[in-house]
What we know:
It is built from ten helices and three strands; from the N terminus they run αααβααββααααα. With 163 residues, the chain is mainly alpha-helical. The two termini are 34 Å apart. InterPro entries: GPIID_WHD.
Amino acid sequence: IKTTLDKLSKGSAALDDAYKDAIHRIEGQLAGDSEQAKNVLSWITYAQRPLTTAELCCALAVEHEEEELNPENIPDMEDLVSVCAGLIVVDEESRVVRLVHYTTQEYLERIRRTWNPRAQLEIASTCLTYLSFNEFKNGSCSTDAELRERLQQNVFLDYAARY
């Protein structure tokens, strides 16, 4: 982190170099870890609002073409932080996952076409897949209490339904 902070103070070219180094470290990981990091960074970069750790982990566990969420697919947040090479942080109080600096988002948006061109499509597809789970086929809730319970039991529902 000290090296990155030193680079940050030397201007935007050095900032880009620091982000290129981080991306290079991510791409140098095992394929599954590299792909997971890409997905995490895409979600944080392109989500319509900040996501909590629970929401992000749930979103990452969604498998396309499946009709329910497999709890075994829910990743460990510490592992996600680790594979992202210092580019994300978790606010301990709110449990919101954020990019380490606002310039991180700017950099990731600039390299989107070459690094992860399908990010926004994947996010939309994940939300649609989640909303089509068997859990929700019974329709809407008939009381506020039922809705609150459904939202508590399905942490990603609020985000998927709104965005």
